[in-house]
Amino acid sequence: MSLPEQPLSPLDGRYRPMVVGLGDHLSEAGLNRARVRVEVEWLLYLTDHELFGSQRVEHEQARQLREFAADFGQPEIDQLAALEATTRHDVKAVEYLVRAKLTELGLTDIAELTHFAATSEDINNLSYAITISAAVREVWLPRLRAVIESLRTLSIELRDDAMLAHTHGQPATPTTMGKEFAVFVHRLERITAKIEATEFLGKFNGATGTYAAHLAADSEQDWPGISREFVTGLGLQWNPLTTQIESHDWQVDLYQQMSHAARILHNLCTDVWSYISTGYFRQIPQAGATGSSTMPHKINPIRFENAEANLELSSALLESLAQTLVTSRLQRDLTDSTTQRNIGVAFGHSLVAFENILRGLKEIDLDRERLAADLDSNWEILGEAIQTVIRVEITAGRSSITDPYAILKDLTRGKRIGQSELVEFIDGLDIGQDAKDRLRVLTPATYAGLASQLVNYIES
């Protein structure tokens, strides 16, 4: 027995609530709404400038046309589907939909200016730029910023909580948990600034980017100037030199930066997962939740594992988009058309990851006792401080020790040294008394340098 029709992608199934905002922009319907808007605005631009003997559309009719584009909904979706079933061409179906609206409004006298001198890509490239810009600015970036702010709050809260660092997975010079989160905040802020500075480009120059049809219609007009004014009037930046397609380089830049952000967050997830695994963070039990189907005690770090997987999917798709869209055979081929239909999928998987990271960060609690115990079990990490101070003493003429690094290496490498042994070693060193006094009071918990103050760099 066949199942009732089911969503194929989890983005349209279990993850739907996390990505619903994207559908308004990056769905087929969202793209078609933008296409209708571009067709209507181009028609109104031509009539506003009374080109080819046309007259300005009356205010109320122009309002109704723009309202028709803005209110694009299920009736229009159904109409387009019926039209495309005949035309077998999505943009041509949009043109016919607009023409039908002109007839309804009594504007058949300007119907031939619909899609005037435009190739499908004149409409498509502007529509994609409009929808992608809206999706990034209204949906994607606000969720990324929410993650950054959650990390910033944690960083400030945990700025003084010293912990043993683990370079190469081995005990190393201490840091603070807050400073480590601050590193991710700083990295994400840099990449976010680049994404926010994205140039959303558009072109409107005909079948091969030469304005040939435009000149055939009227060789006296400044068609590049008209193109610039029209494109920038849609809130986009103008690309003056293209083939049939807008070259997509701005999309390549954007997707590479978004993928970079995803990789930074992937790094965050693996680190937090490791901190949970070592016991630095306790997971807060969630009422009714089950960690394992057979081991009742378990609380699994599923939020961060889920985020990892979705970030990997998102990054892979974004990088694939960037690699494909950078190339177009000669003046035009259709690989970009198929590729761009999956932009929403790439965005969607990152949104799922953002939501899981936000939830996961709220479900962990720092185990300060575990951090303190780990520090107290690794006094040998102070070997770095001791040999550094000895070097200063040698330079200042207060010590005759040779090769202080080797001495500390012999004392500490691969060994566990307790506080009493370290103090005894310090007392026997040929260094000044002030240096000895400084080293004797040093502990792993206080050997965190400026970690707490460094958090100042990411405070709002």
Labels describing this entry:
460 residues, 3 domains, Fumarase C, Chain A, domain 2, mainly alpha, 19 helices, two-stranded antiparallel ribbon, Ribonucleotide Reductase Protein R1, domain 1, 5% strand, Fumarase C, Chain B, domain 1, two-stranded parallel sheet
Structure description:
The protein is mostly helical. The chain has 3 domains: 17-118, Fumarase/aspartase (N-terminal domain) (Fumarase C, Chain B, domain 1, Orthogonal Bundle), CATH 1.10.275.10; 121-286 and 294-367, Up-down Bundle (Fumarase C, Chain A, domain 2); 378-454, Fumarase/aspartase (C-terminal domain) (Ribonucleotide Reductase Protein R1, domain 1, Orthogonal Bundle). It is built from 19 helices and 6 strands. The strands form 3 sheets. It has a two-stranded antiparallel ribbon. Helix 6 packs parallel to helix 13 (343-361) and helix 10 (249-277) packs antiparallel against helix 11 (302-325). The longest helix is centred in the N-terminal third of the chain and has 38 residues, at 120-157. The two termini are 58 Å apart. The mean pLDDT is 94.
Topology, element by element:
Elements (H helix, E strand, L loop, with lengths): L15 H11 L1 H21 L10 H12 L3 H14 L2 H15 L15 H38 L4 E6 L2 E7 H20 L4 E2 L9 H6 L5 H11 L3 E2 L10 H29 L3 E3 L18 H24 L9 H6 L2 H19 L2 E3 L1 H9 L6 H13 L8 H9 L6 H9 L5 H8 L10 H4 L6
Pfam families: ASL_C, Lyase_1
GO molecular function, one term: N6-(1,2-dicarboxyethyl)AMP AMP-lyase (fumarate-forming) activity
Protein name: Adenylosuccinate lyase
pLDDT < 50 runs, ≥5 residues: none
How big a fraction of the residues is strand? 5-15%
CATH homologous superfamily classification of the largest domain: Fumarase/aspartase (Central domain)
Molecular shape: elongated
Largest sheet: 2 strands, antiparallel
Query: How many domain units?
Result: 3
Strand order of the largest sheet: 1-2
Q: SS-based structural class? A: mainly alpha
What is the distance, rounded to the nearest whole angstrom, between the alpha carbons of the first and last residues?
A: 58 Å
Order of helices and strands: HHHHHHEEHEHHEHEHHHEHHHHHH
**Second-tier CATH architecture of the largest domain:** Up-down Bundle
User: What count of helical segments does DSSP give?
Assistant: 19
Q: What is the number of E strands? A: 6
Spatial extent as radius of gyration? 31 Å
Helix content: 55-70%
Whole-number average pLDDT?
A: 94
CATH class of the largest domain: Mainly Alpha
CATH names the topology of the largest domain as Fumarase C, Chain A, domain 2
InterPro entries: Fumarase/histidase_N, Fumarate_lyase_CS, Fumarate_lyase_fam, Fumarate_lyase_N, L-Aspartase-like, PurB_bact, PurB_C
Pfam family, one: Lyase_1
Domain Fumarate lyase N-terminal: 57-307
Keywords: Lyase, Purine biosynthesis
